[in-house]
Amino acid sequence: MRINRYIAQAGICSRRGADRLIEQGRVTINGHNAVAGAKVQDGDVITIDGIVVTLPHENNRVYIAFNKPVGITCTSDLRRKDNIISYINYPKRIFTVGRLDRDSSGLILLTDDGDLAYRLTRTEHGHEKEYRVSVDKRITSSFIEGMQKGVPILDTITLPCRVWQTGEKEFRIVLTQGLNRQIRRMCEYFQYTVNDLERTRIMHIALGAQPVGSWRELTPKETQELLRLIRIRR
Fold it and tell me: Would you call 196 a catalytic residue per the annotation?
């Protein structure tokens, strides 16, 4: 397999993160600096910063659902006091699947499975994420219709999505893409300000009554369905 996929499967970081490590000259294959796109064969010795990297047994993969509080940042940079990894303090190396804004709360997945993280964060796969959003003023039908059709932000137009009103100043939205601060930017386009944003579901995995700040491992049924939906065999 390619070196970046190997590093991701080892649970070090995502494939993109692995590419950065390779560019920085921190990865070796059999004592030689790795290059982007290099292939790893059985018996090869892979190191990062001089430490040998091995693949975990597939049955020991970690899949975690975390109800992120506002103020926690989705970064693996332990120099940041508000980083999500230190907050959870899981005994194995894990990383987030995608991101959730520091000012937002709700469901985020963490894992040591690089393949899963890679596939879940690819927009073309169309995996649903549902959010509960409250705004600063009364919601109108034209706002709901405009959000559904697609909004020009970040030099593109957002994909059509499902939006429905749940209160005078509250709505639900289901996205299949994850642009930077997408919902907040979409609302701003229509002169609305987001007061509160919570992600309540990722695909079939729902936040439910899970307390804010708590994490749980996915059930075997949730894990099996997750791997089926992204077509990874275990």
Answer: no
